UniProtKB/TrEMBL annotation:
Domain of life: Bacteria
Family matches, as Pfam families: SnoaL
Taxonomic lineage from the root: Bacteria, Pseudomonadati, Pseudomonadota, Alphaproteobacteria, Sphingomonadales
UniProt-listed GO biological process terms: polyketide metabolic process
Protein name: Ester cyclase
Coiled-coil blocks: none
Amino acid sequence: MIGTTLSPEDAKAIVRRNTEEVQSKGDFALFETLFADDFRDRTPQPNMSPDKDGVRILYKRLRAAFGDFHAVIHWQAADGDIVTTFKTYHGVHRGEFLGIAPTGRTIQFDTVDAMRIVDGRISEHWGVADLYGLVRRLTEQAPPSSGEAA
């Protein structure tokens, strides 16, 4: 892909803004600026389209399902036009997610994303998220209280 070459720090800043301002704070006007119109998600979540619309819907569903949804970035690395980020998402399950009714449980799950930056915009994404761990946490039986038999 031919495009404007950014410094590794500038490329990481674009991805960090997506994580901190769009995903964590719900700034969807910024989403429109950060993501290329021809964006491609190479690892879309179940039942999501692999394009900009699919990612917008996913982000909105996550924010609706998990009160105070936010991410903590542990590290980022840039290699050419690809930025890799390891982060942990946090929130409280207050809305339906993946067909699971709200549980009120506090969740966290780890994600590793790789995002290609072309002409200052996010153009491609590859990612691995611990959705199995998240679903397990949301569907596990609560332990009995101290007064109940196990």
